[in-house]
Amino acid sequence: MVPLFQSSPEPYDLRNFTVLLVEDSPYMQSLTSEMLKLFGIGDIIKCDDAKEAIDLLTITHARRSSRHVDKVDIVLTDWLMPGGSGAELIQWIRNHEATDIRFLPIVVISGYTTEKLTYKTRDMGINELLVKPISGKLLASRICSVIDTPRPFIQTQDYFGPDRRRQDMDFPGEDRRSQDPNIVKHEI
Amino acid sequence: MPEESENAVKILKPKYNLLKNKTGARININNPGFIEEEKIKAADALIAGLCEGSGEKLEEQIKVLTELWKNIQELPDDTQRKEKTQEIFTIAHEIKDISSLCSYNLIAHFAESLRDYIAETSINLKNQRIIIQAHINALSTVLKHNISDETDAVAEELKSKVKIAIDKYR
Which of B5, B34, B100 sits opposite A9 (nearest CB)? Predict the structure, then answer.
Protein backbone atom coordinates (compact mmCIF):
# COMPACT_ATOMS: atom_id res chain seq x y z
CA MET A 1 0.00 0.00 0.00
CA VAL A 2 1.45 3.37 -0.97
CA PRO A 3 1.55 5.71 2.01
CA LEU A 4 -0.51 8.87 1.56
CA PHE A 5 2.25 11.11 2.80
CA GLN A 6 5.82 10.53 1.70
CA SER A 7 8.34 10.98 4.48
CA SER A 8 11.50 10.58 2.44
CA PRO A 9 12.90 13.08 -0.06
CA GLU A 10 12.05 12.54 -3.72
CA PRO A 11 14.13 13.09 -6.84
CA TYR A 12 12.99 16.07 -8.84
CA ASP A 13 11.61 15.83 -12.35
CA LEU A 14 12.88 19.05 -13.91
CA ARG A 15 11.74 18.55 -17.47
CA ASN A 16 9.08 21.23 -17.18
CA PHE A 17 11.60 23.78 -16.04
CA THR A 18 13.02 26.60 -18.11
CA VAL A 19 16.32 28.13 -17.00
CA LEU A 20 17.63 31.40 -18.36
CA LEU A 21 21.43 31.13 -18.42
CA VAL A 22 23.28 34.44 -18.78
CA GLU A 23 27.02 33.98 -19.32
CA ASP A 24 29.44 35.76 -21.63
CA SER A 25 32.14 33.06 -21.72
CA PRO A 26 31.26 30.52 -24.44
CA TYR A 27 33.24 27.88 -22.55
CA MET A 28 31.36 28.35 -19.28
CA GLN A 29 28.04 28.86 -21.00
CA SER A 30 28.39 25.58 -22.83
CA LEU A 31 29.56 23.70 -19.72
CA THR A 32 26.81 25.04 -17.44
CA SER A 33 24.18 24.38 -20.08
CA GLU A 34 25.29 20.76 -20.50
CA MET A 35 25.29 20.27 -16.74
CA LEU A 36 21.73 21.59 -16.51
CA LYS A 37 20.66 19.20 -19.28
CA LEU A 38 22.21 16.31 -17.34
CA PHE A 39 20.11 17.35 -14.33
CA GLY A 40 17.04 17.01 -16.54
CA ILE A 41 16.18 20.68 -17.02
CA GLY A 42 13.71 20.78 -19.90
CA ASP A 43 14.67 24.01 -21.58
CA ILE A 44 17.76 26.19 -21.28
CA ILE A 45 17.73 29.62 -22.86
CA LYS A 46 21.23 31.05 -23.30
CA CYS A 47 22.12 34.73 -23.37
CA ASP A 48 25.57 36.31 -23.69
CA ASP A 49 24.94 39.33 -21.49
CA ALA A 50 22.40 41.21 -19.41
CA LYS A 51 21.06 43.23 -22.32
CA GLU A 52 20.19 40.12 -24.30
CA ALA A 53 18.58 38.57 -21.21
CA ILE A 54 16.49 41.68 -20.59
CA ASP A 55 15.31 41.68 -24.21
CA LEU A 56 14.38 38.03 -23.95
CA LEU A 57 12.46 38.43 -20.68
CA THR A 58 10.64 41.41 -22.15
CA ILE A 59 9.56 39.35 -25.14
CA THR A 60 8.48 36.29 -23.12
CA HIS A 61 6.54 38.54 -20.78
CA ALA A 62 4.78 40.22 -23.69
CA ARG A 63 3.87 36.85 -25.16
CA ARG A 64 2.93 35.23 -21.88
CA SER A 65 -0.58 34.47 -23.05
CA SER A 66 0.88 32.19 -25.71
CA ARG A 67 0.88 28.53 -24.79
CA HIS A 68 3.94 28.03 -26.95
CA VAL A 69 6.21 30.32 -25.01
CA ASP A 70 7.85 28.72 -22.01
CA LYS A 71 7.99 30.98 -19.04
CA VAL A 72 11.41 31.30 -17.40
CA ASP A 73 11.49 29.62 -13.99
CA ILE A 74 15.01 30.35 -12.76
CA VAL A 75 17.66 32.86 -13.82
CA LEU A 76 21.31 31.79 -13.60
CA THR A 77 23.59 34.70 -14.27
CA ASP A 78 27.27 35.51 -14.30
CA TRP A 79 28.22 38.68 -12.45
CA LEU A 80 30.69 40.52 -14.67
CA MET A 81 29.89 40.65 -18.39
CA PRO A 82 31.10 43.26 -20.85
CA GLY A 83 27.78 43.73 -22.61
CA GLY A 84 25.71 44.31 -19.49
CA SER A 85 26.45 42.95 -16.03
CA GLY A 86 24.62 40.66 -13.65
CA ALA A 87 23.97 43.70 -11.45
CA GLU A 88 22.06 45.45 -14.24
CA LEU A 89 20.00 42.33 -14.88
CA ILE A 90 19.19 41.85 -11.20
CA GLN A 91 18.15 45.48 -10.79
CA TRP A 92 15.97 45.32 -13.90
CA ILE A 93 14.26 42.13 -12.69
CA ARG A 94 13.65 43.29 -9.12
CA ASN A 95 12.37 46.71 -10.24
CA HIS A 96 10.06 45.35 -12.92
CA GLU A 97 6.36 46.07 -12.48
CA ALA A 98 5.20 42.64 -13.64
CA THR A 99 5.02 40.00 -10.90
CA ASP A 100 6.07 37.17 -13.21
CA ILE A 101 9.38 38.94 -13.67
CA ARG A 102 10.14 40.70 -10.40
CA PHE A 103 9.70 37.54 -8.29
CA LEU A 104 11.95 35.44 -10.52
CA PRO A 105 14.44 33.32 -8.56
CA ILE A 106 17.98 34.51 -9.34
CA VAL A 107 21.19 32.56 -8.82
CA VAL A 108 24.44 34.45 -9.39
CA ILE A 109 27.42 32.39 -10.54
CA SER A 110 30.58 34.35 -9.95
CA GLY A 111 34.32 33.94 -9.97
CA TYR A 112 34.69 36.61 -7.30
CA THR A 113 35.06 35.36 -3.77
CA THR A 114 34.89 38.54 -1.76
CA GLU A 115 32.66 39.16 1.23
CA LYS A 116 31.80 42.48 -0.39
CA LEU A 117 30.28 40.74 -3.38
CA THR A 118 28.31 38.37 -1.19
CA TYR A 119 26.71 41.27 0.68
CA LYS A 120 26.21 43.30 -2.46
CA THR A 121 24.40 40.55 -4.35
CA ARG A 122 22.36 39.64 -1.29
CA ASP A 123 21.28 43.25 -0.87
CA MET A 124 20.32 43.45 -4.54
CA GLY A 125 17.80 40.69 -3.95
CA ILE A 126 19.30 37.48 -5.31
CA ASN A 127 18.18 34.09 -4.05
CA GLU A 128 21.48 32.20 -4.16
CA LEU A 129 25.16 32.76 -4.90
CA LEU A 130 27.43 30.14 -6.41
CA VAL A 131 31.15 30.88 -6.30
CA LYS A 132 33.24 29.34 -9.08
CA PRO A 133 34.72 26.86 -9.72
CA ILE A 134 31.41 25.24 -10.50
CA SER A 135 30.75 21.60 -9.66
CA GLY A 136 27.83 19.21 -10.06
CA LYS A 137 27.12 19.24 -6.35
CA LEU A 138 27.20 23.03 -6.02
CA LEU A 139 24.97 23.68 -9.01
CA ALA A 140 22.48 20.99 -7.96
CA SER A 141 22.33 22.32 -4.40
CA ARG A 142 21.55 25.88 -5.57
CA ILE A 143 18.75 24.71 -7.85
CA CYS A 144 17.25 22.52 -5.14
CA SER A 145 17.53 25.34 -2.63
CA VAL A 146 15.54 27.68 -4.89
CA ILE A 147 12.84 25.02 -5.29
CA ASP A 148 12.75 23.75 -1.70
CA THR A 149 13.01 26.97 0.25
CA PRO A 150 11.17 29.80 -1.46
CA ARG A 151 11.61 32.59 1.05
CA PRO A 152 8.91 35.26 1.28
CA PHE A 153 9.78 38.49 -0.46
CA ILE A 154 10.35 41.63 1.53
CA GLN A 155 9.55 45.09 0.23
CA THR A 156 10.89 48.18 1.94
CA GLN A 157 11.84 51.61 0.74
CA ASP A 158 15.26 50.44 -0.32
CA TYR A 159 15.01 46.70 -0.78
CA PHE A 160 12.94 44.24 -2.75
CA GLY A 161 13.86 40.59 -2.78
CA PRO A 162 13.83 37.35 -0.81
CA ASP A 163 13.94 37.61 2.96
CA ARG A 164 17.63 37.92 3.73
CA ARG A 165 17.21 35.91 6.89
CA ARG A 166 17.60 32.28 5.99
CA GLN A 167 16.18 30.91 9.18
CA ASP A 168 13.08 31.81 11.09
CA MET A 169 14.47 31.09 14.50
CA ASP A 170 12.68 30.84 17.78
CA PHE A 171 13.38 33.63 20.21
CA PRO A 172 12.31 34.25 23.79
CA GLY A 173 9.55 36.70 24.60
CA GLU A 174 6.59 38.01 22.72
CA ASP A 175 6.58 38.32 18.95
CA ARG A 176 6.38 42.07 18.91
CA ARG A 177 7.01 42.24 15.18
CA SER A 178 3.56 41.04 14.32
CA GLN A 179 2.05 43.90 16.27
CA ASP A 180 3.94 46.49 14.33
CA PRO A 181 1.50 48.38 12.11
CA ASN A 182 4.36 49.03 9.71
CA ILE A 183 4.68 45.35 8.83
CA VAL A 184 2.10 44.34 6.29
CA LYS A 185 1.73 40.75 5.20
CA HIS A 186 0.36 39.90 1.80
CA GLU A 187 -0.28 36.60 0.17
CA ILE A 188 0.58 36.53 -3.52
CA MET B 1 -8.52 50.15 5.76
CA PRO B 2 -5.76 52.35 7.14
CA GLU B 3 -3.29 53.62 4.59
CA GLU B 4 0.09 51.93 4.66
CA SER B 5 2.83 54.26 5.78
CA GLU B 6 5.72 54.80 3.43
CA ASN B 7 7.91 53.10 6.03
CA ALA B 8 5.84 49.94 5.83
CA VAL B 9 7.68 46.69 5.44
CA LYS B 10 5.71 44.35 3.22
CA ILE B 11 6.12 40.62 3.53
CA LEU B 12 4.94 38.96 0.36
CA LYS B 13 4.46 35.27 0.79
CA PRO B 14 3.47 33.03 -2.11
CA LYS B 15 0.37 30.96 -1.60
CA TYR B 16 1.83 27.99 -3.40
CA ASN B 17 5.32 26.80 -4.15
CA LEU B 18 4.89 26.88 -7.90
CA LEU B 19 8.37 25.57 -8.63
CA LYS B 20 7.81 22.61 -6.36
CA ASN B 21 4.52 21.90 -8.13
CA LYS B 22 6.37 21.83 -11.41
CA THR B 23 8.76 19.13 -10.20
CA GLY B 24 5.90 16.70 -9.87
CA ALA B 25 6.44 16.43 -6.11
CA ARG B 26 3.81 14.25 -4.53
CA ILE B 27 1.32 15.10 -1.82
CA ASN B 28 3.73 15.98 0.97
CA ILE B 29 5.03 19.05 -0.73
CA ASN B 30 7.05 20.19 2.28
CA ASN B 31 9.68 17.46 1.93
CA PRO B 32 12.91 18.62 0.32
CA GLY B 33 13.69 16.99 -2.99
CA PHE B 34 16.98 16.28 -4.66
CA ILE B 35 18.72 15.79 -7.96
CA GLU B 36 19.88 12.20 -8.27
CA GLU B 37 23.46 11.39 -7.39
CA GLU B 38 24.14 9.77 -10.76
CA LYS B 39 23.15 12.99 -12.51
CA ILE B 40 25.50 15.00 -10.30
CA LYS B 41 28.28 12.48 -10.99
CA ALA B 42 27.59 12.76 -14.70
CA ALA B 43 27.95 16.54 -14.44
CA ASP B 44 31.25 16.16 -12.59
CA ALA B 45 32.43 13.64 -15.20
CA LEU B 46 31.60 16.22 -17.86
CA ILE B 47 33.84 18.75 -16.09
CA ALA B 48 36.61 16.16 -15.77
CA GLY B 49 36.32 15.35 -19.48
CA LEU B 50 36.53 19.01 -20.45
CA CYS B 51 39.54 19.50 -18.21
CA GLU B 52 41.47 16.82 -20.09
CA GLY B 53 41.82 19.17 -23.01
CA SER B 54 42.02 22.34 -20.99
CA GLY B 55 45.83 22.58 -21.03
CA GLU B 56 45.75 23.29 -24.75
CA LYS B 57 42.88 25.71 -24.36
CA LEU B 58 44.79 27.64 -21.71
CA GLU B 59 47.91 27.67 -23.83
CA GLU B 60 45.90 29.12 -26.70
CA GLN B 61 44.30 31.77 -24.49
CA ILE B 62 47.61 32.85 -22.96
CA LYS B 63 49.09 33.20 -26.44
CA VAL B 64 46.09 35.29 -27.50
CA LEU B 65 46.56 37.43 -24.40
CA THR B 66 50.26 37.91 -25.12
CA GLU B 67 49.58 38.87 -28.74
CA LEU B 68 46.79 41.22 -27.71
CA TRP B 69 49.02 42.95 -25.22
CA LYS B 70 51.75 43.34 -27.82
CA ASN B 71 49.24 44.91 -30.22
CA ILE B 72 47.87 47.24 -27.57
CA GLN B 73 51.31 48.61 -26.84
CA GLU B 74 51.81 49.38 -30.51
CA LEU B 75 48.61 51.40 -30.77
CA PRO B 76 49.30 55.08 -31.41
CA ASP B 77 47.10 56.70 -28.80
CA ASP B 78 45.68 56.22 -25.34
CA THR B 79 42.06 56.18 -26.48
CA GLN B 80 42.62 53.16 -28.66
CA ARG B 81 44.60 51.43 -25.92
CA LYS B 82 41.83 52.07 -23.44
CA GLU B 83 39.23 50.51 -25.71
CA LYS B 84 41.28 47.36 -25.97
CA THR B 85 41.59 47.03 -22.20
CA GLN B 86 38.25 45.29 -22.00
CA GLU B 87 39.55 42.51 -24.21
CA ILE B 88 42.39 41.82 -21.78
CA PHE B 89 39.87 41.68 -18.95
CA THR B 90 37.65 39.24 -20.84
CA ILE B 91 40.49 36.90 -21.71
CA ALA B 92 41.99 37.03 -18.20
CA HIS B 93 38.52 36.30 -16.79
CA GLU B 94 38.13 33.27 -19.05
CA ILE B 95 41.62 32.00 -18.26
CA LYS B 96 40.81 32.30 -14.58
CA ASP B 97 37.52 30.41 -14.98
CA ILE B 98 39.02 27.55 -16.96
CA SER B 99 42.16 27.23 -14.87
CA SER B 100 40.36 27.25 -11.52
CA LEU B 101 37.82 24.73 -12.81
CA CYS B 102 40.60 22.38 -13.92
CA SER B 103 42.93 22.93 -10.94
CA TYR B 104 45.61 24.92 -12.74
CA ASN B 105 45.81 26.94 -9.57
CA LEU B 106 48.95 28.89 -10.37
CA ILE B 107 47.57 30.09 -13.70
CA ALA B 108 44.30 30.91 -11.93
CA HIS B 109 46.23 32.97 -9.38
CA PHE B 110 47.90 35.17 -12.01
CA ALA B 111 44.85 35.41 -14.25
CA GLU B 112 42.69 36.51 -11.31
CA SER B 113 45.28 39.05 -10.23
CA LEU B 114 45.48 40.44 -13.77
CA ARG B 115 41.71 40.51 -14.17
CA ASP B 116 41.20 42.34 -10.89
CA TYR B 117 43.96 44.80 -11.68
CA ILE B 118 42.57 45.57 -15.14
CA ALA B 119 39.12 46.10 -13.62
CA GLU B 120 40.37 48.94 -11.46
CA THR B 121 42.76 50.69 -13.81
CA SER B 122 43.27 52.05 -17.28
CA ILE B 123 46.50 51.15 -19.03
CA ASN B 124 47.58 54.59 -19.99
CA LEU B 125 50.36 55.06 -17.50
CA LYS B 126 53.74 53.45 -17.88
CA ASN B 127 53.65 52.00 -14.37
CA GLN B 128 50.40 50.24 -15.05
CA ARG B 129 51.83 48.72 -18.16
CA ILE B 130 54.73 47.29 -16.16
CA ILE B 131 52.28 45.53 -13.86
CA ILE B 132 50.34 44.05 -16.75
CA GLN B 133 53.54 42.92 -18.43
CA ALA B 134 54.66 41.23 -15.18
CA HIS B 135 51.41 39.25 -15.13
CA ILE B 136 51.68 38.19 -18.73
CA ASN B 137 55.33 37.19 -18.26
CA ALA B 138 54.31 35.09 -15.25
CA LEU B 139 51.54 33.34 -17.19
CA SER B 140 53.83 32.63 -20.11
CA THR B 141 56.53 31.26 -17.80
CA VAL B 142 54.11 28.95 -16.04
CA LEU B 143 52.93 27.67 -19.39
CA LYS B 144 56.37 27.32 -20.96
CA HIS B 145 57.88 25.44 -18.04
CA ASN B 146 54.70 23.58 -17.20
CA ILE B 147 54.81 24.65 -13.56
CA SER B 148 51.90 22.90 -11.92
CA ASP B 149 52.80 23.03 -8.26
CA GLU B 150 51.84 26.41 -6.91
CA THR B 151 54.00 25.92 -3.85
CA ASP B 152 57.09 25.16 -5.96
CA ALA B 153 60.05 27.52 -5.42
CA VAL B 154 59.78 28.83 -8.97
CA ALA B 155 56.09 29.48 -8.50
CA GLU B 156 56.77 31.41 -5.31
CA GLU B 157 59.39 33.48 -7.10
CA LEU B 158 56.98 34.33 -9.90
CA LYS B 159 54.29 35.34 -7.43
CA SER B 160 56.80 37.45 -5.59
CA LYS B 161 57.89 39.25 -8.79
CA VAL B 162 54.31 40.11 -9.69
CA LYS B 163 53.63 41.29 -6.16
CA ILE B 164 56.74 43.47 -6.20
CA ALA B 165 55.63 45.01 -9.50
CA ILE B 166 52.17 45.73 -8.10
CA ASP B 167 53.49 47.17 -4.84
CA LYS B 168 56.12 49.30 -6.56
CA TYR B 169 54.23 50.60 -9.52
CA ARG B 170 50.60 50.79 -8.44
Answer: B34
DSSP state of A178: G
Closest chain B residue to A38, measured at CA: B39
Smallest CA-to-CA distance from A101 within A168, A27, A153 is with A153
* pLDDT at position B11 over 60: yes
A187 located within any domain = no
**What pLDDT score was predicted for residue B1?**
45
**B35 near A CB under 8 A:** yes
What CATH number is associated with residue A71? Answer: 3.40.50.2300
A-chain CB neighbours of B93 within 8 Å are 25, 80, 111
Gap between the Cα atoms of B142 and B140, Å rounded: 5
Report yes or no on B37 lying in a domain. Answer: no
CA distance A107 to A128: 5
Domain limits at A26? 18-168
- pLDDT, tens only, A111-148: 877 888 888 999 999 999 999 999 999 999 999 999 98
Instruction: Answer whether B9 sits within 8 Å of A14, measured CB to CB.
Output: no
Taking Cα atoms as reference points, which of B64, B86, B63, B97 lies closest to residue A31?
B97
Q: Where are the alpha helices (DSSP H) in B74-152?
A: 78-101, 105-119, 126-144
In a domain, B146, yes or no: yes
Residues with Cβ within 8 Å of residue A131, at least 6 apart in sequence: A110, A111, A112, A113
- Kindly determine whether residue A10 and residue B26, on different chains, have CB atoms separated by under 8 Å: yes
B66 within domain boundaries:
yes
Residue A11: inside a domain: no
Structurally, chain B folds into a number of domains equal to: 1
- Model's pTM, two decimal places? 0.84
Asked if the structure places residue B148 within a domain, the reply is yes
Give me the helix-helix angle, B126-144 and B54-73, nearest 10°: 150
Residues of A in contact with B112 (CB under 8 A): 111
pLDDT tens for each residue of A14-69: 999 999 999 998 889 999 999 999 999 999 999 999 999 999 999 888 776 555 45
| Contact residues, chain A, for B22 at CB < 8 Å | 16-17, 73
B129: pLDDT confidence band, cut at 50, 70 and 90?
confident
